[in-house]
Backbone:
């Protein structure tokens, strides 16, 4: 199989035929079912957001939420008629994709702000980075070892308090509860370090994925970004990017190349998400609308 045949629709290719733009772009809003969908033509109410430097974070043991005393926010609520989105990111480890998206948000390429971090490991690298940057941290799930964590319904309520539009999983290793999926339909994304549906599902995460790819003899790998359903790695695929598997690759070497591509791809997808450029075909397949030419998809 030629490498070009595996290249994602997300990657720009001037020879790829465009898909006729016969459908409206729809997003699922994390609000009551009666207003679950809204179109790109919706008029948004503008309101001014004040800039402020990150404030000291303190931990509230009663509800498992770390809060920022005065909060932080970022400006330019409207851009080309599109409201700036509020993002929640879930991590279990170092959170390098979380950092990439946050930096892109601060730099202006992502028209959205990370307003809360959710983690199952209070001391992980992603949590430390969030605290250092004034981002509130929520502990989830509640367990015997973490009695101060939140239950699923409490997590949904907490995200509502932060007015979260979209949820981004960035190395979060727990299964997302059905309560959250139902509260945020078509609004939760995950990134996986293989070309799904290959090397996905329960037990396939981190270095285990890259070892399995090499052992299989596969010639290509790469990250997949997909919408989240009630199972591991089975939601609709939104974007993929191809990374070659070299003849003498170790799992660590392959992982490093895939991770570098993850950082690029997740930022680009988050940018499209916040700009309301995700459309759904009638068969339920999500596509990314080109910003430069709205009649083309990738």
Residues:
């Amino acid at each position: 199989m030629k490498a070009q045949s595996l290249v994602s629709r997300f990657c720009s290719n001037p020879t790829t035929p465009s898909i006729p733009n016969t459908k409206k772009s729809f997003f699922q809003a994390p609000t009551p079912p009666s207003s679950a969908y809204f179109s790109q033509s919706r008029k948004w109410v503008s309101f001014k957001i004040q800039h402020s430097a990150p404030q000291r974070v303190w931990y509230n043991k009663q509800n498992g939420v770390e809060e920022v005393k005065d909060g932080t926010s970022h400006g330019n609520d409207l851009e080309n008629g599109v409201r700036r989105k509020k993002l929640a990111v879930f991590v279990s480890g170092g959170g390098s994709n979380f950092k990439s998206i946050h930096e892109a948000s601060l730099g202006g390429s992502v028209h959205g702000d990370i307003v809360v971090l959710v983690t199952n490991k209070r001391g992980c690298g992603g949590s430390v980075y969030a605290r250092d940057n004034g981002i509130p941290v929520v502990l989830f799930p509640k367990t015997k070892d973490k009695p101060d964590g939140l239950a699923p319904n409490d997590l949904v309520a907490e995200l509502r308090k932060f007015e979260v539009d979209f949820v981004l999983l960035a190395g979060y290793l727990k299964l997302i509860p059905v309560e959250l999926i139902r509260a945020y339909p078509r609004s939760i994304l995950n990134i996986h370090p293989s070309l799904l549906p290959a090397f996905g599902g329960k037990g396939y995460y981190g270095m285990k994925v890259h070892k399995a790819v090499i052992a299989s003899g596969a010639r290509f790998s790469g990250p997949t970004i997909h919408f989240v359903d009630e199972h591991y790695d089975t939601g609709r695929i939104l974007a993929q990017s191809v990374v070659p598997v070299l003849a003498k690759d170790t799992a660590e070497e392959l992982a490093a190349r895939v991770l570098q591509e993850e950082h690029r791809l997740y930022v680009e997808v988050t940018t499209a998400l916040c700009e309301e450029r995700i459309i759904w075909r009638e068969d339920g397949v999500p596509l990314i609308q080109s910003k430069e030419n709205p009649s083309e998809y990738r």
